[in-house]
Write a structure and sequence with these properties.
alpha/beta, Rossmann fold, Alpha-Beta Plaits, TIM Barrel, eight-stranded mixed beta barrel, 23 helices, binds ligand C2E, binds calcium ion
């Protein structure tokens, strides 16, 4: 790394004076810190500037010289964009010349005879710093691709607008390109930079009609801070149709999130909300616009609260495991075969919170593993307790979420639960949602193969909700198929759904997989499934998920059937 003294040495100063003595004195002072080059008249000066244009930091220019004087040199400098960037300090003994020199663009002046060393050095270095600082600002202020502000500057300016022009009521608009990374992968970076530049240009021309500023950040995100628009749908359509016209052969989809101006909400927070809104319509090509509203706000506040309360909830045992039975319906009467462990949060102030509310939230931020480990441990204990109390083994399945699959000690965690509770491996079953199989299949297949080789049974949850096709089933390491509820819902009224269910059942039979039908609520649904040779049924028809104490009644009933 270069030290600051060394960096200073890299800076070049041009001293222009027709008097040798002046050149020598000034040269002596400056050579302490800079590389110094010289010219003894205006003509030579222009030559030197041209030859050193790329690394000249400052020009010390005498005004009165033969051939071409300092003012003429200033004129030449002013007429050239590159030269104009180099600061000039004029050397003068005449007060009257100073004003004209300053008007012609000189940055400062030093009077002759020369002052103390220190004063001259300080002035030179201050001017260089100021000038380099301004250059740096100019180059960092704009994003080179889109020609919009870069993010940091944007927020500074947005904050200034917000503070100084409260009456403008500026809205925060976030514009995003769907699947930009795949566009990049298929069309190349350079081409996609072109798309970004095009969008930047469209935004700029919108801002020429309507007051506001804009920036690009995070590759494909555009932030626009503008006066309120009566119709954001129209604004989005304007950008979208411009893109369609420019790139007729590529599908480029925009989405937009808006947070309207609201008293007391500063730009940073306003854009945070607009971004939240924009993310809510990610991938929704039918409805690519979302305006931030009270419901989203309430949900966000609730989510914050749940995240905050998680530690206390764990400490105070607010999480309870409920059990929902699975019945073998090929027996008459149907027999209790196993159960699924489902978590409930008994919050002291908010009451019972459904997992639908907090599981996706904790899945998103990785906290899910904490919660899942609690459920697995409680379930292991419970199976052991029932074994002891009733001399009856009820296998229970637990849910494993996608985030858990990446934790490398999953195998040892499950082994430990089984061993510590004196269970058999077949007592604890593992549910993995179908979508996990399509997302990281190789890693997942390896993990599941290991778990199965130890003796755990794997149930594929929510089958049919995602993208896996029937023919993928044959290569997947699973023991049980849990058919998604949506198939069962309309099975009585829709012939298609009924046929689909019967097809799934046939294929599962062919592949030697057990099938659980989830969400069975009516006798009609049960009859159809029974006829189709579905093995197991889970649903309100038999029972809702129950706390362990209540679930025991089902076990007792089962034991009484067994005895008869
Ligand atoms: P899931 O694994 O698909 O669980 C089945 C859900 O369907 C449960 O909702 C259950 O109460 C509900 N259900 C069962 N029978 C019926 C019925 O006949 N009709 C209707 N309408 N619903 C029925 P729940 O308990 O609210 O859980 C929702 C989801 O939250 C679960 O879906 C699962 O994905 C997740 N979840 C629950 N507990 C855990 C857990 O401990 N860990 C993880 N990672 N996820 C969990
Ligand atoms: Ca499940
Ligand atoms: Ca399910």
């Amino acid at each position: 790394m270069l030290k600051s003294k060394q960096i200073q040495r890299l800076r070049k100063v041009l001293v222009v004076d027709d008097q040798e003595i002046n050149r020598d004195v000034l040269g002596m002072i400056l050579e302490e810190q800079y590389e110094v080059i010289y010219a003894c008249n205006g003509k030579e000066a222009v030559e030197q500037i041209k030859n050193n244009i790329s690394n000249l930091s400052i020009i010390m220019l005498d005004l009165i010289m033969p051939e071409m004087d300092g003012f003429q040199v200033l004129d030449v400098i002013n007429s050239d964009e590159q030269m104009k960037k180099i600061p000039v300090i004029v050397l003068t003994s005449e007060k009257s010349a100073e004003l004209l020199a300053l008007q012609k663009g000189a940055a400062d002046f030093i009077t002759k005879p020369f002052d103390m060393h220190e004063v001259i050095l300080a002035r030179v270095s201050r001017i260089i710093e100021l000038c380099e600082g301004r250059e740096l600002i100019l180059s960092a202020e704009r994003d080179k691709i889109s020609n919009l502000y870069s993010q940091n500057f944007f927020y500074v300016y947005a904050q200034r607008l917000y503070t100084l022009h409260k009456n403008l009521n500026l809205d925060a608009v976030v514009l995003n390109i769907e699947q930009f990374h795949s566009l990049n992968a298929t069309n190349g970076r350079e081409f996609c930079d072109g798309i970004l530049a095009f969008v930047g240009n469209e935004i700029n021309s919108f801002l020429q009609e309507s007051e506001g500023i804009a920036s690009r950040s995070d590759a494909d995100r555009f932030d626009i801070y503008c006066v309120h628009q009566p119709d954001y749908k129209q604004l989005l359509e304007r950008f979208q149709s411009a893109l369609n016209k420019q790139y007729p052969r590529i599908n480029i989809h925009l989405r937009m999130g808006v947070n309207m101006a609201q008293e007391g909400v500063e730009p940073f927070q306003q854009f945070d909300r607009a971004r939240t809104a924009c993310n809510m319509v990610r991938g929704d090509y039918q409805r690519p616009l979302m305006i931030y509203n009270e419901d989203i706000l309430a949900k966000e506040l609730l989510h914050h609260r749940l995240i905050n309360d998680l530690n206390t909830a764990i400490k105070e045992n607010q999480f309870k495991v409920y059990y929902q039975p699975k019945y073998n319906i090929q027996c008459d009467p149907p027999r209790l075969s196993s159960a699924e462990a489902l978590i409930r949060w008994k919050h002291p102030q908010l009451g019972m919170i459904s997992p639908g509310e907090f599981i996706p939230l904790f899945e998103g931020n990785g906290l899910i593993s904490l919660v899942d480990n609690i459920v697995w441990a409680q379930t292991g204990k419970q199976i052991a307790e029932w074994k002891k109390k009733y001399n009856f083994t009820l296998p229970v399945s637990v849910n494993v979420s996608r985030a858990d699959l990446f934790s490398n000690d999953l195998v040892s965690v499950f082994k430990k639960i089984v061993e510590e509770n004196g269970l058999d491996y077949s007592d604890l079953k593992i549910e993995v949602t179908e979508s996990a199989y399509t997302q990281n299949s190789k890693q997942l297949t390896d993990l599941i193969t290991t778990l199965r080789s130890i003796g755990f049974a794997i149930e594929m949850d929510d089958f049919g909700s995602g993208y896996s096709s029937l023919n993928m089933l044959s290569s997947m390491p699973i023991d049980v198929l849990k058919m998604d509820m949506k198939f069962i819902r309309n099975i009585e009224n829709s012939d298609t759904d009924k046929k689909l269910v019967s097809l799934i059942l046939d294929i599962a039979k062919y592949l030697n997989l057990l099938v659980v039908a989830e969400g069975v609520e009516t006798t009609g649904q049960l009859d159809i499934l029974k006829e189709g040779k579905c093995d197991l049924v889970q649903g309100y028809y038999f029972s809702k998920p129950l706390p362990a104490e209540e679930f025991e009644q089902l076990i007792e009933k089962e034991l009484s059937i067994k005895r008869d």
